[in-house]
């Protein structure tokens, strides 16, 4: 697995680097002292997860997460307890309170590794060209063209894939998985929704109008909507 | 005739008695109210003193706990790599803690003790970063012994790190000038900060400092804070 470190304190880097040496299949691709530099790196490189500090100059860790359209798994490392709630709302995988032991570090690492194996199980498979997706639902494997997906809805431990061609398919997978693996045409707009940009008719206040229904915009995801206008 | 005399006498006696009774009741309640008033007055001033003390204690306790956890994390990292810096850093941290825990309870400490504390704090903060921070601490102390309320001067210094140094990517600086003479103690702190992050500045530390100054050095201090083009300036004057 690959990861990067974002923390403004050098000693915090040392601790993680030393721990990572103990794990054979973990590679730190790069370490950053601020989140701004990490953004451009993430635009051109794929990483499995990030060790992320919260209090940093220029761009704070939680704002950094909100800015990523397809965030990898995130392990927060902080001396601050009080951001844990917001962190988990942004679906971070784990939250390490500094200073943390190797055992605690290992636990966080295993959580990420577990997440990755869940993803690689065969319920959902995105094809190489990003054109279609194989979804296992109702004991049947459906091939769905990405253009036909209107939006995805979180549904307990499942995700409901709403299509314009047939009735929704329910698949045992996390919304997070789709968020990380679908192309940039899909944006997370709410804790429970990912929307295909093509189907947006209009945006008014905190509502997105699609073909047949209106979906709310989550407070934390507003930044994704604002980005639509920037490009 | 006789009966008339007796009646008049009785009325007279009654009137006399009535006046005495009124006087007695009046004086009795007068004393009751007076004592009650004195008692209440004493009680309120006691309460007020207690309130001021607990307010001061509360305001004092608002020192940022994250500093300790961040420092401990750095100590942990240093110790793990068996760095030669470890023992020195542990001593610095214990001095800081001793000062906060014990000296912080006293109403006045010597200015030197507060200065030692500020210097230890600065050195521990520098341990945290690999940035080139320019910290210039000028001390112009012209008298041998001067006292100050503890943990006052740390607040603006803490802010200079938290809202200044920690927000700037490069070329962070803090200039500190401390002057003490017969008539005053003056602290001036100038630091740069990232303008974008200024909105995060809630100023709780500064508000608490103002309240504490009001309680300890009422009509005896001047505080001026200016924020201009990414430069923050704190100026406190305490008249002796």
Describe the protein in words:
The complex is a heterodimer of chains A (231) and B (240). Chain A folds into two domains: 2-120, Rossmann fold (3-Layer(aba) Sandwich); 124-230, OB fold (Dihydrolipoamide Acetyltransferase, E2P) (Beta Barrel), CATH 2.40.50.1020. Chain A has helices at 10-21, 35-44, 61-67, 84-89, 102-120, 175-181, 222-230; strands spanning 2-6, 27-32, 49-52, 73-78, 94-97, 124-126, 132-137, 140-145, 149-155, 158-163, 169-171, 186-190, 193-196, 202-204, 207-209, 214-216. A five-stranded parallel sheet of chain A has the order 2-1-3-4-5. Chain A is an alpha/beta fold. Chain A contains seven helices and 16 strands. Chain B has 240 residues and is an alpha+beta fold. Chain B folds into two domains: 17-61; 62-239, 2-Layer Sandwich (Heat Shock Protein 90), CATH 3.30.565.10. Chain B contains six helices and seven strands. In chain B, strand 4 (173-180) and strand 5 (184-192) form a beta hairpin. In chain B, helix 1 packs across helix 6 (204-216). Chain B is elongated. The chains are: A alpha/beta (231), B alpha+beta (240). The interface between A and B is medium-sized, with 18 and 23 residues. Chain A: Residues 2-113 form the Response regulatory domain. Chain A: Keywords: Phosphoprotein. Chain A: This is Response regulator transcription factor. Chain A: The modification 4-aspartylphosphate is found at residue 53. Chain A: InterPro entries: 2C-system_Tx_regulators, CheY-like_superfamily, LytTR_DNA-bd_dom, Sig_transdc_resp-reg_receiver.
* CATH uppermost class of the largest domain in chain A: Alpha Beta
Number of separate domains of chain A: 2
Tell me the β content of chain B. 15-25%
Contiguous helical run count of chain B: 6
Residue-averaged pLDDT of chain A: 88
Biggest sheet of chain A, in brief? 5 strands, parallel
Within the largest sheet of chain A, what's the order of strands?
2-1-3-4-5
What does the main sheet of chain B amount to?
A: 5 strands, mixed
Distance, first to last CA of chain A: 32 Å
Name the helicity range of chain A.
Answer: 25-40%
Q: Encode the helix/strand succession of chain B as letters.
A: HHHEHEEHEEHEE
User: Under CATH, the topology of the largest domain in chain B is which?
Assistant: Heat Shock Protein 90
User: Looking at this structure, what is the CATH superfamily of the largest domain in chain B?
Assistant: Histidine kinase-like ATPase, C-terminal domain
Q: Given the C-alpha coordinates, what overall shape of chain A results? A: globular
Distance between the termini of chain B: 87 Å
Work out the helicity level of chain B.
40-55%
Instruction: Count the E strands of chain B.
Output: 7
- Overall morphology of chain B: elongated
- The main sheet of chain B orders its strands as 2-4-5-7-6
